Amino acid sequence: RPVILWFRKDLRLDDNRALHAACKLGRPIIAIYIREPRSDGTGPLGAAQAWWLHHSLESLEMALGKLGGRLHLISGDALDLLCDLIDDSGAEMVLWNRRYDPAGIAIDTRIKRALAEQGIEAKSFSGQLLHDPSRLMTGAGTPYRTYTPFWRALEKLGEPDDPLDPPTKVKFIDLPQKSEPLAEWRLLPTKPDWASEFKDIWVPGEEAAHRRLTDFVENDLQGYRRNRDQPSRRATSLLSPYLALGVISPARIWCETRGSSKRVPVADLVHFRKELAWREFSYHLIYHFPELPNRNWNDRMDAFPWQNDKKHFSAWTKGVTGYPIVDAGMRQLWRHGFMHNRVRMIVASFLVKDLMIDWRHGETWFRETLVDADPANNAASWQWVAGSGADASPFFRIFNPTLQGEKFDPDGSYVREFIPELANLDNKYIHRPFDAPASVLASAAIKLGTTYPEPVVDHAFARDRVLVAYAATKDGA
Ligand code: FAD
Fold this sequence. Notes:
Layout: E1 3-7, H1 17-25, E2 29-35, H2 47-66, E3 71-75, H3 78-89, E4 93-97, H4 102-117, E5 121-125, H5 147-157, H6 198-201, H7 206-220, H8 224-227, H9 240-244, H10 250-258, H11 266-288, H12 310-318, H13 324-336, H14 341-354, H15 359-369, H16 375-386, H17 401-408, H18 413-418, H19 438-443, H20 459-476
Helix pairs in contact: 5-11, 11-16, 13-14, 14-16, 15-16
Bound molecules: flavin-adenine dinucleotide.
Protein name: Deoxyribodipyrimidine photo-lyase
Catalytic activity: cyclobutadipyrimidine (in DNA) = 2 pyrimidine residues (in DNA)
Keywords: Chromophore, FAD, Flavoprotein, Lyase, Plasmid
């Protein structure tokens, strides 16, 4: 009797424990991907990630095809579909890799129970994270709330399990009548095709993910610690979109960096691994505190007097706030479905602190526009920046967008790439066009308020305003 292998956030053959276990059973495998009504704990699949999902599924279909198999694409309620498939095929077991977002866990628990009642075993495996979130607990048996002790505990746990190589021989079952054409899922934008530039930046599929990893380890891991904060350089791994859909496993990434320590300074290696550990920490938080995407971790922030000005929010999403580093970041997001981490921190701080717009609006916008949208990383990062989260950046740490731009993009290359209308502006004013003398603006063909906006708020005013609001929230608590 066959077994069902259910692909979810693990669109890969390499280091796929459920696939490996299915192969070991020696039974024919029915490989499926279900388009569920909701994709993760935070709401519907975002448009940018839908684009990425389409191409990642296409690549997985091809990879399975090379092994003589088919990826059956089906849409609807997962439990109903699995029951139908079991009835039709006589399958006796369902295998999958665990997911850790709250809605995913709820669905999987319900399905496991319902299948067990029918005498069907559902077997789940790890692989989305380096370590299962339940393995890392404080001495008191409680979840971690701050990153540094979490990292120490993760280090103590030792190396993650070795990644498993992809299978070379698999017995598949093909049920063509059961599969829907991918095109019918309409995951790609049509008119307008706002994702037209994505394909120049992102190459889908496992092979591309592994090439990216090798390229990063060979060329950019050395110097990562120093260079990772410069948005104009391609100095980070750019693996987050692959990780978001499980096209590559974190254990594979961890393992591939292992050998690099002979060539690469330990500080760079450790720093990179610490970033992977931030991902683990975000999942640890969402696993133990499922309300992370929706509720202030620190409920003192519940009383915060958000302004939520619609015009300001619109200016932020379009990249027309008048602060070049913020606008460049928001336009990179629109054009590439991605934004450099340093700039994510700057634009998030600007939204929450300068514009006093609730972090949940920013989190939702990022979810819709990021190719790497991830329920845990996104929610944890937004709460961190907003000062409402676990281990949050202190609320009074307010980024000055002009100084941040000058520090991390000193020659303005990043700004010039995404804001062509500022391309000819002198370095001295590239992050502060509002301070430039009329003659400088004129020689760069800039008309403030016409070709490029005036600032939507004055940063010094906004800083004082938000600090007063925060102090009042604190006093009122
Ligand atoms: P690298 O520097 O190469 O890091 C390697 C991997 O470590 C990343 O791929 C990622 O999985 C993990 N990582 C790195 N930084 C962080 C971090 N601060 N928190 C958690 N994991 C991290 N990341 C997402 O994957 N999805 C999101 O939806 C997301 N939303 C964010 C929202 C805000 C407001 C902020 C400030 C950060 C957010 N991040 C998110 C974290 C981070 O910006 C991205 O993971 C990183 O920019 C991805 O680029 P990279 O793969 O080149 O990272």
